[in-house]
Amino acid sequence: MADRTTHRPLPMSTLSLLAQHVSRRPQRIALLEQIAEQGSITRAAKAAGMSYKAAWDAIDELNNLADQPLVARNVGGKGGGGARLTPAGERLLQLHQRLQTIQAEVLQAADDDADLQLLGRLMLRTSARNQLSGRVRAIHPHGGNDLIDVELPGGTLIQAQITRSSTAHLQLQPGVALLVLIKAGWLQLSEVGAVADPALNTLLGHIEQIQIEADGPCEVRIALPNGQTLCAQATTEQLAAQALVVGSPVRAQFAASQVLLGTQV
Questions:
Q1: Are 126 and 181 in contact, with CB atoms under 8 Å apart?
Q2: Cα 149 to the chain's mean position, in Å?
Q3: Could you write out the DSSP letters of every residue in the chain?
Q4: How far is CA 20 from each of CA 13, 25, 65, 110, rounded to the nearest angstrom?
Q5: Dist CA 62 CA 51 (whole Å)
Q6: For residue range 213-232, what is the model confidence (pLDDT) as tens digits?
């Protein structure tokens, strides 16, 4: 996939959050370092001690959490596809090195292991396969709930339906940065020419990879125009019925009630 993204400096808050995220997963940093050195996903994954699939998953997660891609990839080709860090990815590596120094000082300052255990419990972990960055565009009262207009990088809008108390708890207002969570099983895939459900959120992209599983649904990796990636689940029969194959344009739909939101504490 050719990299057509115009790179701009990432906000320091975004870089800090990303650096903390990869710091909790040392292999992610090792993967970024190896991509910078090797220029190949296959060679970088091997050098970082990861499987090729795990490397793709890690890159997708990091790119999705950023406002712009950290890794630019070319799918396929000799060596399993080329890859390089974007300027934002290079800045993230530099910030991580600074955070490592700060982390060492924090460890020395902790009075008790319980302090560090508490910090660990406060770090977010989620089973949702899709974790995207976004920002609040607008908030609309909807009965006892609120409909939150969420702007993804590139300007695409989706809606999330949450309770009014959740809106207050998350302190949501226009401009607030969000973590958007969507489970893979909640995405409904269809060919772009098919009739869409206007009541559902819609994201358009193209199928980048289909991972066929022997004992379950296929994992479908969808590249969005903004550089983010979705992971969906579908059976081989569902894909065949929609004539969806690698390279196909695809529509992913999901309900506003199936969008989970999180904010940084």
A1: yes
A2: 18
A3: --------PPPHHHHHHHHHHHHTSHHHHHHHHHHHHH-BHHHHHHHTT--HHHHHHHHHHHHHHSSS-SEEEEESSGGGEEEEE-HHHHHHHHHHHHHHHHHHHHHHH-S-HHHHHHHHHHS-----SEEEEEEEEEEEEETTEEEEEEEPTTS-EEEEEEEHHHHHHTT--TT-EEEEEE-GGGPEEE-TTSPP-TTSEEEEEEEEEEE--TTSPEEEEEE-TTS-EEEEEE-HHHHHHTT--TT-EEEEEE-GGG-EEE---
A4: 11, 9, 12, 18
A5: 17
A6: 878 899 999 999 988 999 99
Who has greater pLDDT, 106 or 242? 242
Q: To the nearest whole number, what is the mean pLDDT of the chain? A: 82
User: Using CA atoms, how far apart are residues 247 and 192, in angstroms rounded to an integer?
Assistant: 13
Q: Which two tokens mark 119?
A: 């910090």
Identify the structural domains of the chain with CATH numbers, from first to last. 14-108 (1.10.10.10), 130-262 (2.40.50.100)
In angstroms, the CA 175 to CA 155 distance is 13
Torsion, Cα 207 58 136 99, to 10 degrees, reads -160
- 65-84 pLDDT tens trace: 777 788 987 765 554 558 88
To which residue do tokens 């998953």 refer? 57
